[in-house]
Design brief:
By secondary structure, the protein is an alpha+beta fold. Helix content is 24%, strand content 12%. It contains one helix and two strands, in the order ββα. Strand 1 and strand 2 (22-25) form a beta hairpin. The N and C termini lie far apart (30 Å).
Length: 67
């Protein structure tokens, strides 16, 4: 299995905001989460989500990996 991290261009907060190291999804984030969870229903065997933990690896410092 692989760990996947998804970043947006220029680290724009399209999907919600981080407060106290927890991700609060906005409307677009809710849609993205719903689509992500439904992937195995459309393409079985490609993605297996065993455990999810929101914002565990998210960094509050946006400049750590980019400009």
């Amino acid at each position: 299995m692989y760990f996947i991290t998804i970043c947006t261009h220029n680290f724009v907060e399209w999907f919600g905001t981080i407060n106290d190291r927890k991700l609060g999804l906005n409307a677009m984030g809710d849609i993205a989460e719903k689509c992500w969870i439904e992937i195995p229903n459309h393409i079985p065997g490609i993605i297996c989500i065993v455990e999810t933990r929101h914002a565990v690896s998210l960094q509050e410092n946006k400049n750590k990996f980019g400009p």
